[in-house]
Amino acid sequence: MGELRLAFYEGAVDGDVDALAHLCDVEGSVLPDDGPSFPLLEEVRRVLEMCAEKYTAPHAFGPHFVDLH
Fold first, then answer.
1. How far apart are CA 32 and CA 41, in angstroms?
2. Chain segment 11-63, per-residue pLDDT in tens
3. Which residues, in sequence order, are CB contacts of 4 under 8 Å at separation 6+?
4. What is the DSSP letter of 65?
5. How far apart are CA 30 and CA 6, in angstroms?
6. Which of 4, 1, 9, 10 is nearest to 26 (CA)?
7. What are phi and psi of 53, to 5 degrees?
8. pLDDT tens track for 36-45
9. Could you give the CA distance from residue 12 to residue 51 in angstroms, rounded to a whole number?
10. Reported pTM
């Protein structure tokens, strides 16, 4: 599996995706030391955990986070 790219936007999708404010992109991948690759959602979770440990997490201005990718 290639590198993940997660894009985060502020707001709820109501048909006009262009109206959402782009907050950040997170790119990366996590590979086990041995054995098969992680399932996709497990890899996403691990990438976000690593990002949260290294950087502060972005804060939405409204009540929703939306991932469009």
1. 14
2. 887 878 788 888 888 898 998 999 899 999 999 999 888 887 776 655 666 66
3. 26, 27, 28, 29, 43, 44, 47
4. E
5. 14
6. 4
7. -70, -35
8. 999 999 999 9
9. 23
10. 0.62
